[in-house]
Design goal:
This protein is of the alpha+beta class. The chain folds into four domains: 109 residues, Glutaredoxin, CATH 3.40.30.10; 150 residues, Nucleoside diphosphate kinase-like domain (Alpha-Beta Plaits), CATH 3.30.70.141; 132 residues, Nucleoside diphosphate kinase-like domain (Alpha-Beta Plaits, 2-Layer Sandwich), CATH 3.30.70.141; 133 residues, 2-Layer Sandwich (Alpha-Beta Plaits), CATH 3.30.70. The chain contains 25 helices and 18 strands. The strands form five sheets. The protein has a four-stranded mixed sheet. A four-stranded antiparallel sheet has the order 6-7-5-8. Strand 3 and strand 4 form a beta hairpin. The radius of gyration is 28 Å and the shape is globular. The two termini are 49 Å apart. Pfam families: NDK, Thioredoxin. Belongs to the NDK family. InterPro entries: NDK-like_dom, NDK-like_dom_sf, Nucleoside_diP_kinase, Thioredoxin-like_sf, Thioredoxin_CS, Thioredoxin_domain, TXND_domain-containing. One of its GO terms (biological process) is GTP biosynthetic process.
Amino acid sequence: RPEGTLVVDVYQVWCGPCKTVVSLFRKIKNELGDDLLQFAVAEADSIDALEKYRGKCEPTFLFLAGGELVAVVRGANAPLLQKTIIEQLEAEKRVMQGSERKVIKDEALLEEEEEVSPLPAQAEDEELVPAGKSYTVAIIKPDAVAHGKADEIIMKIQEAGFEILANEERTMTESEARDFYQHRAGEEKFPELIQFMSSGPCHVLIISKSEDEDVIPSWREFIGPTDVEIARKEKPESLRAQYGTEVLYNAVHGSSDRDQASRELAFFFPNFKISPHNGTTELSTKISERTLALIRPEALKDRKDEVLQSIYDAGFSIAMQKEVMLSEQQVKEFYKEHVDKDYYPALLKQMTSGPVLALALVKDHAVSHWRNILGPASVDKALNDAPESLRARFPPKESEINQLHGSSSPEEAEQEINFFFPVEHTLAAIKPDALEEYKDEILERIQAAGFTITQIKETKLNQEVAEEFYKEHKGKEFYGQLIDYMCKGPSMMMILSKENAVQEWRSMMGPTDPTEAQAVSPGCLRSVFAKSVLQNAVHGSSNQKHAMEKIQFIFGDIDMDGKMNGK
C-alpha cells in the first residue's frame, strides 16, 4: 500500500509463518479497525531482498512504511508487538500530516556483517567456518556432567578465548564408546573406560581459536596432563586439575593431533564436512533440528507466558504446539523408562494434575541447546548449581518435580514429537472455481508445506452427495447456495497426511471469510485464491473425528498400509 503501516512476518520455508501471533494480529486489527494497518507474510527463502534473513530460527517482524523499514521486532513477544504496532501506526499518521519519517537499518544484520569475515561461496544449507581456523573435538566426560559442572567448564572454555562451534549432549552406547576408543583397546583398563564413557551423558564440543593459532596444542595445554595427580602438581589451573579425580575420571578429553581431530569430528558430527580452501580447513553443517519441550501443569497454569518468552529469547521457533490433558496410561506410556523409579508417583501426579503444553522446538542443535538451558533435572540442584537455568527460574511450588521436560537425543526427540504430534490424516478439497483457475498453484503450496497427498481424486458432486457431505450445515441460511455451488463443477478431493495435519491444514486455509483472511493471515490460501465466503477456494475438516468420517465418505474403507486405519 502507498500509505499506512505494513507488518511483515518474515518466515523460513521449513517452519512457515509464526502461528502464535495470528490471533494477536486479528485482535489488534479488530480493536483498531484502522485501514492504514496491514499485515503480510514473506518467505525469506524465495525473496532476494530478504536474503540476509534466511536460516534464522527466531521469528522476525518487519515494520514498513512508504516502502522503508521503520522498526524490527524479533521473537513472538505479544506486548512488544502490540506496542510497536500502535507506535508505528501513530508515527505514520504524523508523517501523513507533514512530519519526517524515521527510517532505520536492521542493527542485528549490520552487527553480523561487522563480526563475520567474508566467506567463500557455499551450498544453500551450509554454514562455513571462516578460512584459517583450526579445530579440535573436546568431550566433557560423564563424571563432570553428573556433578553438574558442564556449564561451569563451558564458561571457562569461552573465557580462555576458545570458540565453541558446536555443543551436543549425548550418551554413548557401549558399542559407540568401544568404536571411539578402539585405539586404546589393548590397555588394561579398556573395559572400565568403555563402561565409564557409556555410563551417562557427556558434552561433545567442536573447539576453535583465532585464525593464526593452532587450537590443538592450546587446548591440550588448557586441559592439562591425563593423570589428574600430575595435573594438580604441574598445571593446577588446568581443567583436569580442577575437575578430574583420577586418570580415568579426568573430566575432559581433547584430540591429540589433526588426524585424530578429523576422525573424531566424523564420528560425532557426520553432518559436518571438511573441505580444503587455500590450504586451510573449514567446517560445514546442515542446521535446524527439532526437540520436544513440555511445560508441565503448574508452570503452564502460573507462568506460561514467561516460559514461552524465554523459549523465544533463546532463539527457538515453535513449529507445533498442543495443550493436552494426559491420562495415567498416557503418562505411563510416555515415561515407561521411569515407571520403576522412586520419583515416578510424584511425576504421575504432577503430569495428570492439569493440562501440559507440548512444543516442537526448532533451532540449530535444538536437542542439546534446550537441555543445556533447562539445567539439572533435580530442582534443588538446579537452584544451587545452575540458578540461571530454566528449571531454576521456574521451580514448582507444590511438587518436587521440575516443570520443564526436554528430549535427551535427536532420536528420542522424534519419538516424543510423534507421541504428541502423530501423523494425522485430514480431508481437503479444492472447490470448483479454484480448481479451474488455481489447481497447480494450490497443489504446489500443499506439497511445499510438507503435506503428503496420500489419496487424490477429481469428482463432480451431485445433489445427494453434496447434501450428505455438508449435512452439518443443513438448516443454515447459506446451505442451499453452498450445495448449488459445490455441484456446479468438479472438485479435487484429497487425503493430506502430516504431523498435526488437521490444524496445519486449517491454518494454511485461513479464515472462512477471505476479507478476514487478508487482514489476519495474508499468505493463507483463502486470502490469495478465494472470491467470497461462499467461493472460498478450499475445504478442510474441523477435527480428527470429522476428518475420518469425511475420508470414509469420499474414499470408502481404504487401507493405506498402516498409515490410516479408517476407524
